[in-house]
Each structure stands twice: as structure tokens, then as C-alpha cells.
Write a structure and sequence with these properties.
Blueprint lengths: L2 H13 L4 H5 L13 H11 L13 H6 L2 E2 L2 E2 L1 H10 L14
Antiparallel strand pairs: 1-2
């Protein structure tokens, strides 16, 4: 178990008694992970470093985060840098004109 997973578990256990994951990853919307707010992500990155934080880029509003400076009073500079590193802009396929 990575330190980021341990930190997230501890963070949620302090705020919501019990196993939060079983509550948010069950029906009606089962899954393997859940969203946390930008300030909590920034705090986590600050505490454990970008390399220890797992980001689901497909489920992240990357443009919104990159445009935000603060959330909940937290500076998002490190979070933005981490997102840039982990979620590079998708490559677009080159469209070639067809021969008519």
C-alpha cells in the first residue's frame, strides 16, 4: 500500500467514520476509485509528492484544474504541475486529406 493510499484512508476515516470507499464505490455507481476536491488533491501532493499520487486523467477535468489558482484557500501550483506531468495533452491524430 502506497503512502498516498494510507494518507487518503486516514483523511477520510477522520471525516467519515468507517470505510468510505465501500460507501462511494458501491451501487448505484460502482467503481474502483472516487473523486476528491482540488484542495485535498493539492494537500495530498504537497504531503507525499506527485510521484506517489494516483490520478485518473480520464476522470479529471484537466483544463479546469490547470486554469484554477486556489481552491479552499489552498494554492494549486504543485497540483497543476503534477497534473501536467501525469496528464499530458492527448495527441490528436493527423488528418490527411483523401485523394479525390
Amino acid at each position: 500500500e502506497t503512502s498516498s493510499v494510507t494518507m487518503i484512508k486516514q483523511w477520510y476515516q477522520r471525516r467519515v467514520r468507517g470505510n468510505w470507499k465501500t460507501k462511494v464505490c458501491s451501487e448505484p455507481n460502482p467503481g474502483d476509485s472516487w473523486c476528491i476536491c482540488m484542495w485535498a488533491t493539492a494537500n495530498l501532493i504537497d504531503k507525499v509528492g506527485c510521484k506517489n499520487v494516483h490520478i485518473n486523467c480520464a476522470a479529471t477535468d484537466v483544463p479546469y484544474l490547470l486554469g484554477a489558482e486556489k481552491d479552499g484557500g489552498w494554492n494549486l501550483d504543485k497540483a497543476r504541475e503534477c497534473i501536467k506531468e501525469k496528464c499530458p495533452e492527448p495527441k490528436t491524430e493527423e488528418v490527411k486529406p483523401s485523394n479525390l
